[in-house]
Specification:
By secondary structure, the chain is α/β, with parallel strands linked by helices. The protein has two domains: 115 residues, Rossmann fold (3-Layer(aba) Sandwich), CATH 3.40.50.2300; 92 residues, Winged helix-like DNA-binding domain superfamily/Winged helix DNA-binding domain (Arc Repressor Mutant, subunit A, Orthogonal Bundle). It contains eight helices and twelve strands. The strands form three sheets. The protein has a five-stranded parallel beta sheet with strand order 2-1-3-4-5, with helices on both faces. A four-stranded antiparallel beta sheet has the order 6-7-8-9, with no helix packed on it. It has a three-stranded antiparallel beta sheet with strand order 10-12-11. Strand 4, helix 4 and strand 5 form a beta-alpha-beta unit. Helix 6 packs across helix 7 and helix 6 packs across helix 8. The longest helix is centred in the middle third of the chain and has 14 residues. The protein is elongated.
Length: 221
């Protein structure tokens, strides 16, 4: 997965982002001001920066050139939500501009888009005896190909990208089926049961009581 730098002066927000990035497999670094951020990009191979604008030292608008010159893509993550600020941030070269408050799953999805665009997106996933090639949409168990429908694969990919996070049925419908899907949430239940059976993941895809499901990965190889 990716090395992601969080430049955010509010520790509670930074810690929450770091927790979620770590849970889905990324390595996260934290900086609370521009000085620490510049040191971290010198000392580490950073694949992406989540950059607040109102931080001590240089503000995020002034700081972005340092990241771009080091070939580090930037997503602004800020409370400055005016159209003028969004346009300015994107014109300065940011890959995306997200305003606070934000949904964790949306943030993770936008991070995946930027990483995929930059060729830093993981194209495969292996857990125990199951190997998934996300680029070729192939699934193997003990070396044998497992046939999944297009919708089953979309659901599986959503679970993988958000592994160790609890996802509601409605969020799975929005993400794996699309925002315009008008079906019922029990559709998710049926597809989950098929995935469990085909992959032998009865104890891996966990039911979160009265909420939804979680792909629980404890010893990812």
């Amino acid at each position: 997965m990716a090395n992601i730098l969080i430049v955010e002066d509010e520790q509670a927000i930074s810690d929450l982002i770091m927790l979620n990035l770590t849970m889905v497999g990324h390595k996260a670094y934290q900086a609370y001001d521009s000085f620490a951020a510049l040191e971290l990009i010198k000392q580490n191979q950073i694949d992406l920066c989540l950059l607040d604008i109102m931080i001590p030292g240089q503000d995020g608008f002034s700081l972005i050139d340092n990241f771009l010159s080091a070939n580090v893509p930037v997503i602004y993550l800020t409370a400055k939500g005016s159209l003028t600020d969004r346009v300015r941030g994107l014109k300065l070269g940011a890959e995306d501009y997200i305003t606070k408050p934000f949904e964790t799953l949306e943030l993770l999805a936008r991070i995946e888009v930027v990483l995929r665009r930059r060729g830093k997106h993981a194209n495969s996933f292996k857990y125990k005896d199951v190997e998934i090639d996300l680029a070729q949409r192939l699934v193997r168990k003990n070396g044998s190909t497992i046939e999944l429908t297009a919708q089953e694969f979309a659901l599986l990919e959503t679970l993988i990208q958000n592994r160790n996070l609890a996802l509601t049925r409605n969020k799975l419908l929005e993400t794996a089926w699309g925002y315009d899907y008008m079906g019922e949430s029990r559709t998710v239940d049926m597809h989950i049961q098929r995935l469990r059976r085909k992959l032998g993941w009865e104890d891996v895809i966990k039911t979160v009581d009265k909420y939804g499901y979680r792909l629980e990965v404890t010893d990812e190889a």
